[in-house]
Structure formats: C-alpha cells, structure tokens
Amino acid sequence: MGGSNDKIASDILFEWLLRRGDTVLVLGHRVSEWCGHSPVLEEDIALANVALDLIGQARMWLSLAGEVEGKGRGENELAYLRDAWDFRNVLLAEQPNGDFGKTLMRQFLIDTFQVLQLKELETSADPRIAAIAAKAGKEAAYHLDRSADLVIRLGDGTPESHRRMQDALDQLWSYTGELFTSDEIDQAMSDAGLAPDPASLKSEWQKTVDEVLAEATLTAPDSAFAHLGGLTGRHSEHLGHLLAEMQFLQRAYPGATW
Amino acid sequence: MAVPTDTVWKWLADIPDPEIPVLSLTDLGVIRDVHWQDETLVVTVTPTYSGCPATAVINLDIETKLRQCGIDKLRLEQQLSPPWTTDWLSETGREKLRKYGIAPPVGQSGSAPASGGRIARLTGGDSLVVACPRCGSENTEKISQFGSTPCKAAYRCRSCLEPFDYFKCH
Asked: Does residue B142 surpass a pLDDT of 70?
C-alpha cells in the first residue's frame, strides 16, 4: 500500500492520473449544468445521475493522484485550487453543452472511449488503478447504453432532431482525435503494464461509433484534423469559465465546509 | 473485552439504508468485513456507486450506531475491489424491496447480453422483463434508465398503470 509504485516514476503516474480524473471531473461538471434545465424530468434526473457518477469517479482518480504526488494535496485541493493550465482533461470534455443533442453526442463519444479504456485498465499492474477501473467501468457501461440509445433515437428521429445531431457531430468530431494521442507518459504507462496505449483503442472505438452513427443515420465528417492540447494543459477558452463557476466557493471562502 | 463480530453484524443489520430505509446495510451487501485489529474494530465498507451521496451518510450511521453500542475504538475502511454488485442483495432484501414498491434486480449483473450489436456486447445489453411490484404484471415499460437515485430506473406498468422504481442490476 502507500503512495509508491516501483514500476514508474511518481511524477509520470501523477500526470496520467490527472488526465483520468480531470476528464471526468470537467465532463461531470458540464453535465451537472443541465440540472433543472433538461427537456423532460426523466432526462433531468438521468443527466444529474450521470454527472454524479462522473464526479464520483473523479474523486477516486484525484484522491489517488494526491496520494501518489505525496505533497499533501487531496481530491479537494486538486479539484478546487488548480488553475486552468494545471488541468489535464481532454478538450472534448470542456466543450460547452450546446443543446440537448450536442450534450448527448459529446457524452456518447466519450462514453465509448471510457468503456474501452476502463475495460483494459481493469487488468492494470497497479491494483489501485484496476480497482477504480472496475468500479468506474460498470458505470461507464450504463452511461454508454443510454447515450448510444439516445443518439440513435434523435439522429433517426424528426428532421429537426436529425439536423441538430448532425450539427453536434460536425462540431465535436475534431475533438475526438485527442482521445487517442499518445505521448511519453502513455508510453511509460504502457511499458510498465499499467495502462493501454490510447492509440490502441482507436480501431475498436471507431467500429463502435460507426455502427451507432449508421443506425442513427448520421455521417461523421471525413477529416482527421484533431484539436490537441488539453492533456498537456493548453485548453480552449471554455475551461476558465467552467472553473470560475466550479471553484468559486473555495476561492472566495478558502477552506469553507458544510 | 472484545465483542464477538457476530454481535457486531447483528447491530449492523439494524442500520437502515439512508435512501431505501426498508433495506438494512447488511441486506444491501455493502458491509464487506468486520474484524478486530488488536483493540480496534475495523469495519470494511464498499460504496454502491462511486458518486452515491449516501456513502458518507452510511459511514456516519455505522459510526453512530457502533458508538451507541459501546465500541470506542473504531475504524472504517473503504474497499473498492471487487466492486459492489446487486448480486449481493440478500434474498430478504429483495422481498423487502418488492413489498416497498421497488422492483428488485432481475437476473445477475454482467450476464450475457440478450440482444446483438456492438453496444450491447460492450455494456451487457438491455432487454429485461421487469415485473410490476404492485400487481405482478410483466407488461411493463422503461421510462428512463435513471430514476430518483442512480441505482434505480423509472418504469411504468401497462396493466395497473402505476409508475414504479426498478432497482437496476449493477
């Protein structure tokens, strides 16, 4: 037990854990913005519950990150007291909600990635990572069931819902490439048997997404261009606004609890 | 003078789940272990869902109850793995749920998907027959995959027309 892992340098493991934790934290906060605003009550509850799962997963990843870092920072310090350039989430997670369709499309694209990645992480050589992945993987599977179902129903729905889903896909597609980029951190994690190389998840992700989009009568843009930067702390302008709201209480009233 | 762990389990069986009070914590299957480490009682608890707001309340309730029962030295430990599953709901727990108006989980979690398709294979599928806890009819439909709490889905009975919660397999 304890904070050490002899297979890898702790600063690399810390960075990698931030990528996991920040992606679900930022996405969870985005989804929570729907609370009280959804088109129907059932969807309001569903979105709030998905957000809750994601924030719960963020707590597990960030607690472990704090433990690995060994500087006395816990989940709360990491979530509330870092600035935008310290966040390591993918850019896709911080994209604004847009309409209900865009929120669901973003969710579907990330859920598919999450399910595939978490499944691989269940066999991580680090039992702490494997335990979190087993827990989060079950929830991600539930999220994917729902988001895929709704992408199909709305894509293959009315002309208006189809148009909105196609617009969402067109807007978000160029943010999906970042999920599969692989750098020296991923390489080190993969070499140590701690995590899959994200690039290795691409083909399975593509097949799953293609199948759902085909059923939804939607067409992915024929472009491999990818916005990059989130994983190394270069974010779109949207993250700062999100953090301003998410971190307000701890920034204005340091140490506040209830 | 250590209290036998059997007695501690009986005390824990009296603590209601904060969200579904007809169930006790032992019905729910979240208590994984009770043992003495020297003079300290160690209770190992697993969370149901990682974001479940009841987790903190459950821990507080355990602590309060055991202190009332005279346990001074107490430590709660969280265990994530293996992850909690509805397969651990006790039989009496399932019957209590039904009487309370909540349909208990159907089948085993992680059972093979009934439908084809890549998503179903990835996620475990989703073609369940959930009987209405009020009239027993199997002519029911899902309204929403998420109900009043993350662990429940919202269903409607087409026979008696009542809405009801379904405690999802997890």
From this structure: yes
Helices (H), A70-183: 75-80, 91-94, 100-121, 127-155, 159-172
What are the tens digits of pLDDT across the range A85-99?
999 999 999 999 999
Contact between B149 and B137 under an 8 Å Cβ cutoff? The reply is no
pLDDT surpassing 50 at residue B115: no
| In-domain check, residue A3 | no
Domain identity same for B97 and B73: no
Start-to-end Cα distance in chain B: 40
Residue range of the domain that includes A91 = 10-252
Contacts of A255 (CB under 8 A, 6+ apart): none
In this structure, what CATH number is given to the domain that contains residue A177? 1.20.1260.10
b/e per residue B109-133 (b: at least 16 CB within 10 A): beeebeeeebbbebbbbbebebbbb
Flag if A146 and B52 touch (Cβ within 8 Å).
no
Instruction: State the residue range of the domain holding B138.
Output: 86-167
User: Closest-CA residue in chain B for A50?
Assistant: B150
In terms of domains, do B63 and B124 share one?
no
Residue of chain B minimizing CA distance to A146: B145
pLDDT digits (tens, 9 = 90+) for A60-83: 999 999 999 999 999 999 999 999
What's B106's DSSP letter?
A: P
**pLDDT tens sequence across B31-85:** 999 999 999 999 999 988 887 888 889 999 999 999 999 999 999 999 988 988 8
For residues B58 and B100, state if they share a domain.
no
CB nearest to A52's CB, from B51, B117, B122: B51
User: What's the domain count of chain A?
Assistant: 1
Q: Which of A35, A45, A107, A119 to mutate to test the interface with B (most CBs of B within 10 A)?
A: A45
Q: Does the interface predicted TM-score (ipTM) exceed 0.90?
A: no
Coil/strand/helix, residue B156: strand
CATH number at residue B60: 3.30.300.130
Helices (H), chain A: 10-32, 41-69, 75-80, 91-94, 100-121, 127-155, 159-172, 184-191, 202-215, 238-246, 248-252
Domain count, chain B: 2
